[in-house]
Amino acid sequence: MPRHIAIIMDGNGRWAQKRGQMRHAGHKAGLGPVRMAVEACAELGVEVLTLFAFSSENWQRPIEEVGRLMDLFMEALEREAAELNAKGVRVRFIGDRRSLSVRLQTRLNETEDLTRANQKLQLLIAVGYGGRWDITEAARAVARRCASGALQADEIDEATLQEELALSGLQDPDLFIRTGGEQRISNFLLWNLAYTELYFCDTLWPDFDRAELDRALAFFTGRQRRFGLTDAQAVAR
Ligand code: FPP
To answer: Is the pLDDT of residue 235 over 90?
Structure first.
């Protein structure tokens, strides 16, 4: 079983358009599979689930779609926070929050505070997140430490940067899932996906059900993870 699953929930807009509906109807329908994935991961003992809800590039979408998505996040958190808390889910948000409305920022903080002590499953929601933004922020933090004299440039190693990334302290994703037919990483967790098993499926996110998740898990079970080692070394590990 993967300990950490990361998902790009793609295909909401196309799902709605196929039905002659507005794109935001697809985002709304996408909440169903979010609930399913959270419940399944909690039940299966997955430790971390990271969902790409809004990328740094998504700000360039039509203003109406962005506004509707922000309303959807707000409503979903208002409605689901207590339930997530009751299920023992710790919710955290990764990404640049500064462009979000103050109301939404407050809601994110409240949800994090409410669920902070929970241990069943960590749900990371990427909002205003970009992999390059993440690495740039980490580089800035490391540079500040150097400038203050707390760190020498020669002491910087991979762990130094990793500690400053949004997923600091968490294990990297074991399994990445992208729905909607595209086979790209789209500036998701660029650093942390280095050795992740990548699973792509054509299913549009609103149609991603438990059977689809089980197919992704079966794919993961069939992979031999080598982390750069030979077959024999990996087996011996
Ligand atoms: C990509 O589909 C999906 C998004 C940009 C938004 C995903 C958000 C949700 C499913 C809501 C989640 C809410 C919470 C609180 C976790 P797309 O619009 O790019 O689809 P397309 O490729 O068909 O256009």
So the answer is: no
